[in-house]
């Protein structure tokens, strides 16, 4: 399985997921994995879950899946998150909820790939945010595979180190690839040019942590869907951005009587 498509944080946005699936079908993909948060925020949890179950070889539980099936976890969540959970609970069947409750927290592919929703560093509620060098320094201590796949932040990212697992790593010794900056292209703010993909080399004798970004609710200022293609033979990761019909997704959110901000934020990439 040399080429692995990695998706995460679909959040009930079937309009975006359909476009990402169409884009993946034009690539040479051997396997698709999902890093969780299929449900939450968006209007179409059932459709997204059905599509992900058909598409993905492996799915791990995200914090929104856990919040859906474990009573009380979402008590301190913001109103948009709670509304999305209640909407998903009304849309999904008993069998769907049982499937989500049985999702694993992590997966591995051979000795090369480890996948989890939030971070290789254990956390009680799958709520660790791996955003920067300092977060990555802690996470790498727990990563014993060549590549760690994480989601949860909704922001595409790639961190790398040559340090051994378990070692103390100064944050400044971790390489960070400016994924979002590369996807915006050269002088984007002046020329309006966006890049559809950007490929980064992974360390052949070190380790990397890769976040594919969010399919259904990007939060890096780019409203296009984001996913990644990990090539284990070439030791590369390609980040892809895919445009979708934002107006249609917003109409579906409004029709589901979700908070207006749930649909409005899609256009902002926030």
What do you see in this structure?
The chain has a single domain (3-268), classed as Metallo-dependent phosphatases (Purple Acid Phosphatase, chain A, domain 2), CATH 3.60.21. The chain contains 10 helices and 12 strands. It has helices spanning 14-24, 45-55, 63-69, 79-91, 94-101, 133-140, 179-184, 188-191, 246-255, 260-268; strands spanning 3-7, 31-34, 58-59, 106-109, 113-116, 147-149, 157-161, 175-177, 197-201, 207-211, 225-231, 236-242. Strands 3-2-1-11-12-9 form a 6-stranded mixed beta sheet. Strands 4-5-6-10-7-8 form a 6-stranded mixed beta sheet, covered by helices on one side. It is globular, with a radius of gyration of 18 Å. The model has no long low-confidence stretch (mean pLDDT 92).
Short description:
The protein is α/β, with parallel strands linked by helices. It is 32% helix and 20% strand. Helix 3 crosses helix 5.
């Amino acid at each position: 399985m040399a080429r692995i498509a990695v998706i995460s944080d679909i959040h009930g946005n079937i309009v975006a997921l359909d476009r990402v699936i169409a884009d993946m079908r034009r690539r040479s993909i051997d396997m698709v994995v999902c890093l969780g948060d299929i449900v939450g925020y968006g209007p179409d949890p059932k459709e997204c879950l059905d599509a992900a179950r058909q598409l993905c070889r492996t799915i791990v539980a995200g914090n929104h899946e856990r919040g859906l099936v474990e009573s009380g976890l979402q008590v301190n969540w913001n109103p948009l998150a709670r509304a999305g959970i209640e909407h998903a609970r009304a849309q999904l069947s008993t069998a769907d909820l049982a499937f989500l409750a049985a999702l694993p927290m992590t997966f591995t592919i051979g000795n090369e790939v480890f996948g989890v929703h939030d971070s290789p560093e254990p956390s009680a509620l799958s709520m660790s945010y791996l955003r920067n060098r300092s977060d990555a320094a802690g996470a790498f201590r727990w990563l014993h595979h060549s590549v760690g796949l994480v989601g949860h932040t909704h922001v595409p990212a790639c961190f790398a180190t040559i340090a051994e697992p378990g070692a103390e790593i100064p944050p400044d010794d971790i390489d960070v690839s400016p994924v979002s900056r590369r996807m915006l292209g050269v002088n984007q703010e002046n020329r309006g040019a966006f890049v559809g993909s950007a490929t980064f080399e992974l360390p052949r004798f070190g380790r990397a942590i890769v976040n594919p970004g969010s399919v259904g609710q990007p939060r890096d200022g780019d409203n296009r869907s984001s996913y990644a293609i990990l090539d284990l033979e070439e030791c590369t990761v390609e980040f892809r951005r895919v445009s979708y019909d934002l107006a249609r997704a917003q109409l579906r959110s409004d029709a589901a009587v979700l908070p207006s901000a749930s649909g409005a934020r899609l256009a902002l990439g926030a």
